[in-house]
Protein backbone atom coordinates (compact mmCIF):
# COMPACT_ATOMS: atom_id res chain seq x y z
CA UNK A 1 0.00 0.00 0.00
CA UNK A 2 1.48 3.33 -1.01
CA UNK A 3 0.27 6.88 -0.90
CA UNK A 4 0.33 9.98 1.23
CA UNK A 5 -0.98 10.33 4.77
CA UNK A 6 -3.17 13.43 5.05
CA UNK A 7 -4.10 15.04 8.38
CA UNK A 8 -7.22 17.22 8.27
CA UNK A 9 -9.75 18.21 10.94
CA UNK A 10 -8.19 15.86 13.48
CA UNK A 11 -8.40 12.83 11.19
CA UNK A 12 -5.52 11.03 9.49
CA UNK A 13 -6.24 9.12 6.30
CA UNK A 14 -4.25 7.51 3.52
CA UNK A 15 -4.67 8.97 0.05
CA UNK A 16 -3.65 6.08 -2.21
CA UNK A 17 -3.25 8.14 -5.37
CA UNK A 18 -2.31 11.66 -4.28
CA UNK A 19 -2.31 13.00 -7.85
CA UNK A 20 -5.95 12.06 -8.33
CA UNK A 21 -7.33 13.40 -5.06
CA UNK A 22 -6.85 16.77 -3.45
CA UNK A 23 -6.33 17.33 0.27
CA UNK A 24 -10.02 18.13 0.76
CA UNK A 25 -11.02 14.75 -0.69
CA UNK A 26 -12.41 15.93 -4.00
CA UNK A 27 -11.36 14.13 -7.18
CA UNK A 28 -9.06 15.83 -9.64
CA UNK A 29 -9.19 14.35 -13.11
CA UNK A 30 -9.99 10.82 -14.12
CA UNK A 31 -6.62 9.20 -13.50
CA UNK A 32 -7.73 7.39 -10.34
CA UNK A 33 -8.37 3.70 -10.78
CA UNK A 34 -11.09 1.74 -9.10
CA UNK A 35 -10.00 -1.24 -7.04
CA UNK A 36 -11.58 -4.66 -7.34
CA UNK A 37 -11.43 -7.72 -5.12
CA UNK A 38 -10.40 -10.88 -6.97
CA UNK A 39 -10.76 -14.48 -5.80
CA UNK A 40 -7.33 -15.72 -6.90
CA UNK A 41 -7.98 -19.49 -7.25
CA UNK A 42 -10.75 -18.83 -9.79
CA UNK A 43 -9.50 -15.41 -10.98
CA UNK A 44 -13.09 -14.17 -10.46
CA UNK A 45 -13.81 -10.51 -9.71
CA UNK A 46 -16.18 -10.16 -6.76
CA UNK A 47 -19.11 -8.19 -8.18
CA UNK A 48 -21.67 -8.56 -5.38
CA UNK A 49 -22.03 -9.74 -1.81
CA UNK A 50 -23.73 -12.98 -2.85
CA UNK A 51 -20.57 -14.06 -4.69
CA UNK A 52 -18.35 -12.93 -1.81
CA UNK A 53 -20.49 -14.75 0.76
CA UNK A 54 -20.29 -17.97 -1.27
CA UNK A 55 -16.47 -17.71 -1.48
CA UNK A 56 -16.08 -16.89 2.22
CA UNK A 57 -18.40 -19.68 3.36
CA UNK A 58 -16.38 -22.18 1.33
CA UNK A 59 -13.36 -21.03 3.38
CA UNK A 60 -15.16 -21.63 6.70
CA UNK A 61 -16.50 -18.14 7.36
CA UNK A 62 -19.94 -17.95 8.99
CA UNK A 63 -22.36 -15.06 8.61
CA UNK A 64 -23.50 -13.10 11.67
CA UNK A 65 -26.91 -11.43 11.58
CA UNK A 66 -26.63 -9.29 14.75
CA UNK A 67 -26.24 -5.85 13.14
CA UNK A 68 -28.79 -4.86 10.47
CA UNK A 69 -26.43 -2.20 9.04
CA UNK A 70 -23.48 -4.55 8.46
CA UNK A 71 -22.60 -7.83 6.85
CA UNK A 72 -20.37 -9.68 9.30
CA UNK A 73 -18.42 -12.91 8.91
CA UNK A 74 -16.51 -14.91 11.52
CA UNK A 75 -14.47 -18.10 11.72
CA UNK A 76 -15.15 -19.96 14.99
CA UNK A 77 -11.56 -21.05 15.61
CA UNK A 78 -10.17 -17.49 15.34
CA UNK A 79 -10.77 -13.99 16.63
CA UNK A 80 -11.11 -12.67 13.05
CA UNK A 81 -14.22 -10.71 12.14
CA UNK A 82 -14.97 -9.18 8.75
CA UNK A 83 -17.43 -6.27 8.88
CA UNK A 84 -18.74 -4.82 5.63
CA UNK A 85 -21.26 -2.10 4.83
CA UNK A 86 -24.69 -3.47 3.89
CA UNK A 87 -24.62 -1.54 0.59
CA UNK A 88 -22.14 -3.05 -1.92
CA UNK A 89 -21.63 0.43 -3.44
CA UNK A 90 -19.94 1.42 -0.16
CA UNK A 91 -17.55 -1.56 -0.35
CA UNK A 92 -14.16 0.22 -0.46
CA UNK A 93 -10.52 -0.81 -0.77
CA UNK A 94 -10.08 -0.84 3.04
CA UNK A 95 -12.74 -3.56 3.26
CA UNK A 96 -11.06 -5.45 0.42
CA UNK A 97 -7.64 -5.35 2.11
CA UNK A 98 -9.24 -6.59 5.35
CA UNK A 99 -10.52 -9.65 3.47
CA UNK A 100 -7.13 -10.19 1.79
CA UNK A 101 -5.22 -10.06 5.09
CA UNK A 102 -7.58 -12.54 6.75
CA UNK A 103 -7.56 -14.94 3.78
CA UNK A 104 -3.97 -15.16 2.58
CA UNK A 105 -3.48 -16.45 -0.98
CA UNK A 106 -7.24 -16.56 -1.60
CA UNK A 107 -8.01 -12.95 -2.53
CA UNK A 108 -6.13 -9.96 -3.87
CA UNK A 109 -6.94 -6.33 -4.63
CA UNK A 110 -6.25 -5.15 -8.17
CA UNK A 111 -6.61 -1.93 -10.10
CA UNK A 112 -9.44 -2.16 -12.56
UniProtKB/TrEMBL annotation:
BP GO terms, sorted: regulation of flower development
Matches recorded under InterPro entries: FPF1 (IPR039274)
Family (UniProt): Belongs to the FPF1 family.
PANTHER family: FLOWERING-PROMOTING FACTOR 1-LIKE PROTEIN 1 (PTHR33433)
Name this protein carries in UniProt: Flowering-promoting factor 1-like protein 3
Natural source organism: Salix udensis
Lineage: Eukaryota, Viridiplantae, Streptophyta, Embryophyta, Tracheophyta
